[in-house]
Amino acid sequence: MDELTRFNVISSRIRLARNIEGIAFTGNRKGIDHLKRMRLPDGIERLLRGTFDYDYFRLRDLDDVRIKALVERHIISPTLVHNREEAAGIVERTEGLAFLINEEDHIREQCVERGFNLRRAYDRLSRYDDIIVNTLPVAYDSQLGFLTACPTNLGTGMRASTMLFLPALRHANAIEDTVKVFRERYGLTIRGIYGEGSSALGDVYQLSNTRSLGMTEMDIIEVIEKATLAMCTAEKVARDKLVLERGQEIKDRIERSFNTLRTAYSLTSDALMALISDVKLGVILGLVPLDDTAPLDRLTVLFSASSLTLKIGECAPSVRDITRAKLVREILSEVI
Questions:
Q1: How many of the other CB atoms lie within 10 Å of CB of 310?
Q2: How far apart are CA 54 and CA 125, in angstroms?
Q3: Calpha distance 247→162 (Å, rounded)
């Protein structure tokens, strides 16, 4: 991977929105459409059966903790949870494919790849999208393209996005100005870690296209690639300046965070995210003995509140925090 993007691009995602002709969108609760949408998940599962190794679930069959854990791991969206009765997921067990059924659109297909790999994500997802589009009566207009619940998805129905780690821009108090410039220059949106309306926990931001109509899939991918490279360049400039002007302060902060992460007796999920952000910056600067930030990224996924509850069972928050710190210490001792 290019050295410019190696540490700052956490993952790449392609998402496609598809709807079925003759069925109202999920906001419409009227009888016949509701029944059709209730049958849709089983139909999609039968269509994809045998094409890859997946888990199939209906949200109405899952408890609140399991659902929240799926959201925290970016496997399902918060929007899908709002339609719990009709919603379902088909999620690849080992990699990043997922088909979310009866979210805002009838079908939301997505593929997530680690690092800067938008084209690989698109290539993988396209194979399965072809099955759906060539088999089902997907809603399509010769002028508008794929018809979607949200007008901004009209056209290809595609959202391409990269998940970016941008600590130096935040330390320099430049993130808001940089985001504004990128919105104006590229016509993109930059959101927090869980998408629209969420905060940038752990200095992680999601960059994605805002329109699809009048563009091809490759047009969208090329814009996101160009903007991602430009954002990584801005982050590098901010990082070099940070080291030049506040090097000793930043080094001290990273050292203290690294030591805390390795020795803490108790860690809240928010504290873990903040510490990992500092330590990941230390990896980039060569101050922490890790070749890659991947183990640190996995810690944020494995030990979020709901994911940890699934692992150890229901318990008091204080017990969960102690367990989280213990598991973090054990994992770090294996990789460092």
A1: 15
A2: 14
A3: 28
